[in-house]
C-alpha cells in the first residue's frame, strides 16, 4: 500500500486583503462626504419657516433684516447668541431673545420687550412710548392702541428727568399705575423736578420724581381709603379733600415754598452771624488772656531787676 503525500496549502493573499479593506474605507468616506455635500446643498438644510413670537414694537421684516434669520438661509448656521446680540444691538427696547429650532427647517424666536410705563403726546400729535428701562420710542399709526398707561404732557427738553421717571414708574404697582391718567411736568423755584399727577379715581397728586419711589406706599394708602382730593408728597405729606380745598391753593403753595426758602436763608445767615460772633468772643478772650499774662509777668520782671541792683 503506497502512501500519498498531501501538498501544502497555499498562503493566503494577505496584501490583497489589506488593500481591499483600504479601498472599502476610502469608498465609504467618499460616500459620506458626497452625502454631506448633497445634504447642505439640498432644501432640507435650509430654513423653511421663521416664527416671530412676542414682538409688538418692531415688525417681522425689521427683525429678519437685523438678525439675518430668513427662509433660505442655512439652518445649522444660526446660533442663539448671535441672533440675540444682533437684535439687542439694533433695538434697545428688546429685553431678551430665545431661539427654538425644530428640524427640519423651522425656527421659532421668542421676543420679550420692555413694557411701556407711560406715553407722551408730542407737539406734532404723534405718540411716544416711555419704556421701563428709560428708552423712549415713537409708535406707528398701527401701534396706537388703547392707552392704559399715564400720558406725559409738557415734558419738552426734559429727557434725563423723563428717563428717571420711567424707571420710577416701572417700580409702581400695576393697579396704581393703571389709575394714573396724566403726569405733567410742574416745576417750581424750590422743586425744579416737581410733577403733578392726575388719577382716574379723581385724585390730584403733587410730588417730585426722586421722591416718587419712596412715596408710593403713602399714595396707595390714601387712594384706597380716602375720598378724592389733593395729595402733596414733598418734604411733608398731606392730604386735603376737594371739599376743604381753598380756591387759591396754587398761590398758597407758592407762598409756602417762598417762605420755606426765606426761612432757610435766614437760618443760614443766623448760622453765619453766630459763627462770626463766636470768633469775635474767642478773639477778645484771647486778648484778655494775653493782658493777664503781661500783668503777671510785669511784677516778676521788676523783682528780677531789683535783685540785680542789689
From TrEMBL:
UniProtKB keywords: Cell cycle, Cell division, Cell membrane, Membrane, Transmembrane, Transmembrane helix
Subcellular location: Cell membrane; Membrane
PROSITE patterns named in the record: POTRA
Chain spans, region Disordered: 254-310
Gene Ontology process terms (BP): FtsZ-dependent cytokinesis
Species of provenance: Paenibacillus alvei TS-15
POTRA domain mapped to chain residues: 45-114
Protein name from the UniProt record: Cell division protein DivIB
Regions of compositional bias (Basic and acidic residues) in chain numbering: 254-269, 277-310
Domain of life: Bacteria
Chain's role: Cell division protein that may be involved in stabilizing or promoting the assembly of the division complex.
A Pfam family per the record: FtsQ_DivIB_C
Family: Belongs to the FtsQ/DivIB family. DivIB subfamily.
Lineage: Bacteria, Bacillati, Bacillota, Bacilli, Bacillales
Claim: Nucleotide-binding is one of the keywords in the record: no
Record HAMAP family: DivIB
